[in-house]
TrEMBL record:
Functional summary from the UniProt entry: Catalyzes the formation of the isocyclic ring in chlorophyll biosynthesis. Mediates the cyclase reaction, which results in the formation of divinylprotochlorophyllide (Pchlide) characteristic of all chlorophylls from magnesium-protoporphyrin IX 13-monomethyl ester (MgPMME).
Classification lineage: Eukaryota, Rhodophyta, Florideophyceae, Rhodymeniophycidae, Ceramiales
Protein name as catalogued: Magnesium-protoporphyrin IX monomethyl ester [oxidative] cyclase
Name of the top EC class for this enzyme: oxidoreductase
Any matching Pfam family: Rubrerythrin
Gene Ontology MF term list: iron ion binding; magnesium-protoporphyrin IX monomethyl ester (oxidative) cyclase activity
E.C. number(s) listed in UniProt: 1.14.13.81
Keyword Cell division: no
Organism: Laurenciella marilzae
InterPro entries reported for this sequence: AcsF, Ferritin-like_SF, Rr_diiron-bd_dom
Swiss-Prot/TrEMBL keywords: Chlorophyll biosynthesis, Chloroplast, Iron, Metal-binding, NADP, Oxidoreductase, Photosynthesis, Plastid
GO cellular component: chloroplast
Pathway it works in: Porphyrin-containing compound metabolism; chlorophyll biosynthesis (light-independent)
C-alpha cells in the first residue's frame, strides 16, 4: 500500500537562527574586476566542470527499507536536521543560479562558476528532499521560493558569509563522517555514507569565495575589513553553536556530544579561515566558549518563554530581559581580542 506524502510545515517557521535566503547588488557584482586572480578562477572552473560528484548522489538499496521503525523522538530530530540542511542547500542554489544569470554577459568566468555551484547545491537539496520523503514528508521547495523573505547582503558580505558557511559546512560533514566511520553502530540512516564526497563540494565552493576575496584586496587588507572578518566569524560560529545547543539530542542519537563537536568544528574552521582572513578568533581564551555557553543557555530560555502560556506583557518583559543578556554576551564575545592569522598558520601542521 502506498503511504501518502505530507508536506512539511517547516518552511513557515522562521527565527533568527533559521537558514536564510539571500539577494545582493547584482550591478555591483557585474562590475567586479577579478583580473588579479584570473588563473585561480580558471583552475577552479576546471574543477567545477570535472563534476567529481556527478555519479555520487545515487541512492542505494539501503534507502529502500522502512524508516518508520525509528523511535519517534529520534525521527523528529532527524527530519528537522534534513529539513534545515535542505533549506540551506536550496538557498545556495537560488542565489548562485540568479548570480550566474545576471553575470552571463559581464563576467562569463564568474557566471559559469556560479552556474556549476548552483548545480551542486540543487543536487544536494534534491538528495536531502528525497531523504525527507523516506519519512513520508516532503519539503515544498517551490512554495519555499515564493514564501520566504529574502535578506539583502552587499556583495562583500555575501563573500565573507558564504565563504565561512561553505568551509564550516565542510568541517561539519567531514567530522560527522569520520566519527561514524569509527562508530558505524551510530549511523542511523544511510545518508551519512555520502558525507565524505559531499563535503568536497562545500570545500571547493569555499575555495571559490576565497578566490573572490583575494581578487578584491580591499575586502581583506584594511582595518574596516579586519572588523568585518571578525564580525562574520563570531556570527557564523555563534549561530551554529546556538542551533546545535537546541539540538543536542540529535547529536546524541548519532553518538556525538554537541558541544565537543561544535568546539572541534569551530577550531578547524577558524584555522581554515586564517588562510584567507587577516585575523582569526582567539578561541583558546577560556572566555570564548564560556560566552557561547551563556548565549546558548539564554537562547534556550527565550524559546521556553515563547512556549509558556502567560500574560503577553509579562512574556515581553522576560524576552527583553533575556535578549539583552544574550546581546551583551555576544558583544563580549566580539570584543575578545582577535589574533593575527599568521600566528594561527604557524601552528597548523
Amino acid at each position: 500500500m502506498q503511504t501518502s506524502i505530507k508536506k512539511t510545515e517547516y518552511n513557515n517557521q522562521e527565527t533568527l537562527l533559521t537558514p536564510r535566503f539571500y539577494t545582493t547588488d547584482f550591478n555591483e557584482m557585474s562590475n567586479l574586476d577579478i583580473s588579479l586572480n584570473t588563473e585561480e578562477f580558471e583552475a577552479l572552473l576546471k574543477e567545477f566542470r570535472a563534476d567529481y560528484n556527478k555519479k555520487h548522489f545515487i541512492r542505494d538499496e539501503e534507502f529502500n527499507k522502512s524508516w518508520n521503525t525509528l523511535p519517534n523522538n529520534e525521527k523528529a530530530l532527524f527530519v528537522e536536521f534534513l529539513e534545515r540542511s535542505c533549506t540551506a542547500e536550496f538557498s545556495g542554489f537560488l542565489l548562485y543560479k540568479e548570480l550566474s544569470r545576471r553575470l552571463e554577459k559581464s563576467n562569463p568566468i564568474l557566471a559559469e562558476c556560479f552556474l556549476l555551484m548552483s548545480r551542486d547545491e540543487a543536487r544536494h537539496a534534491g538528495f536531502l528532499n528525497k531523504a525527507i520523503g523516506d519519512f513520508n514528508l516532503s519539503l515544498d521547495l517551490g512554495f519555499l521560493t515564493k514564501s520566504r523573505k529574502y535578506t539583502f547582503f552587499a556583495p562583500k558580505f555575501i563573500f565573507y558569509a558564504t565563504y565561512l558557511s561553505e568551509k564550516i559546512g565542510y568541517w561539519r560533514y567531514i567530522t560527522i563522517y569520520r566519527h561514524l566511520e569509527k562508530h558505524p553502530e551510530h549511523r542511523i540512516y544511510p545518508i551519512f555514507k555520502f558525507f565524505e564526497n559531499w563535503c568536497q563540494d562545500e570545500n571547493r565552493h569555499g575555495d571559490f569565495f576565497a578566490a573572490l576575496l583575494k581578487s578584491q584586496p580591499q575586502f581583506l587588507n584594511n582595518n574596516k575589513s579586519r572588523l568585518w572578518c571578525r564580525f562574520f566569524l563570531v556570527s557564523v560560529f555563534a549561530t551554529m553553536y546556538l542551533n546545535d545547543f537546541q539540538r543536542a539530542n540529535f547529536y546524541k542519537s548519532i553518538g556525538l556530544d554537541a558541544r565537543q563537536y561544535d568546539m572541534q568544528v569551530i577550531r578547524k574552521t577558524n584555522e581554515s579561515a586564517s588562510r584567507i582572513f587577516p585575523v582569526a578568533l582567539n578561541i583558546d581564551k577560556p572566555e570564548f566558549f564560556q560566552y557561547l555557553d551563556m548565549c546558548a543557555s539564554q537562547n534556550k530560555m527565550l524559546m521556553e518563554v515563547n512556549k509558556q502560556d502567560k500574560n503577553i506583557f509579562f512574556k515581553l518583559i522576560q524576552k527583553v530581559t533575556i535578549s539583552s543578556m544574550l546581546v551583551v554576551n555576544l558583544i563580549k564575545l566580539f570584543l575578545i581580542e582577535p589574533i593575527e592569522s599568521s600566528s594561527v598558520n604557524n601552528t597548523i601542521k
